[in-house]
Amino acid sequence: MSRLLSISFAFLFFVSACSSASDPNPDNDSLAQYIVEPLFEEFYEFLGGSEIIGHPISPLINTGQLQKQYFETVLMEYAAAEPPSQQFSLAPLGNQMGQSDAPLLDPDLSNVLFVDGYIIYDRFADLYQSLGGQRYVGSPLTGVRYDEQQNRVEQYFENMGFYINLNQAEPQPQLMAYGLTACADSCADIAASAAIIAIDLPYGEPFTSTAAQIGDALLGARIAGPYQTSDGYLEVIYENMVLFALPDSSLATTRAIVAQLGITPAPLVSRLENPNVIFFAIEGSMGHNIALPFNDFLAEHGGYEISGAPISEIEPQDDGSARQCFANVCLRYISSLVGFVDPVSLGEEYKRLYYDQPLPANSLADIDLHLETWEAQSRISSSEQQIVHISAYSGTQLLSGLDPLLLLNLPNGGQSLFQMPTTDAAGHSQITLPAIEGPNGTRVTYQICIETPDIANTCRTDSFLIWGN
Fold this sequence. Notes:
By secondary structure, the protein is an alpha+beta fold. The chain has 4 domains: 3-184, no CATH class; 190-256 and 350-354, no CATH class; 277-344, no CATH class; 361-466, Macroglobulin (MG2) domain (Immunoglobulin-like). The chain is built from 12 helices and 29 strands. The strands form 8 sheets. It has a 5-stranded mixed β-sheet, with no helix packed on it.
């Protein structure tokens, strides 16, 4: 993680040890199947690690706009397009808990922490501040409450929930299991998805050693994966090639992607009597002639075992270069650059076809649709316009071509209905709402629904606060 992120975290606030908060679920050994993804490691430790946040309960989830990972108490999100100081955040899972209290007018009390119309319980105040206050805990959704059934004191916030178990000998503030509650179904969907599971797993063996043997000059940079395919293999996409392996294998091999990308093998030919080529026999005396620069380049990077057999002759290109394809990779020769050999970048096209591909329309009846909603700002004044976003997905497949409807509940008791734009290839849609009149502290709720003949009616309710008038 970049030094800039570390500096940004330190600049926002000083984090105390928070040793009073215990593990939310210390005895659940089944949670050990997931690791803290490297992307979130520093953020995780920054918020207190397993003592505060609990264990990870999902792999890394890619939803186009965001990368996410569920933990027992929170859902961490990373948005690469945001400024560095805003790339890491926590999702507002509290809005799914169905808990809310009406905000108070400013009580004008001394020695209390008053945030957005709510008094933060004094036993929670230190934990609230140490975890970043509104930046990461979010705004309060309720005041302090007593849960008689569980004999605990609790308070709900947008991104976390706090409680004190009064049955303990020395009751201390802890975090509610927001992540476990919100991910109960979603995590099962991820594990059971039968399509390509577009979830990046930790990058390690057998891919790292195989990639080192082949070399970056042939493979190119890694652009996706490892992820699990529908046939059970693990796969990594590089700029020029694709590696795959069985989950328990110690060896990764190159995938024959050239034909998968629609490049048709050429007819076999006989040997050319030319000192600038070598002949690769495939069927008896028939095969393909390989340019010496290509042969030499491949010999430096694992040979034909890596590239696969040639599937074409040397083909002149319009730009003056020459190209030749093998089962697993295509090479080009640029004579103007003193005989420079360069692999053709096939990885992005493979990624588009086999990794980014949304579910086909005729499979919509079989999907379990999930919606994520968020706003550009958690609080706006009555002179500002709010931008509302939605992401539609099934498991980890992004869903395009859906038409969300947004029902806005106005502070005056009225309602407005908006047709949002059709979800794009990333399953995303957004709409800019008109400015909303209302006093400070008014919580504006909205509901986004997707209704099609093929999908059961699916809705998601969310809210934001009017503040700053």
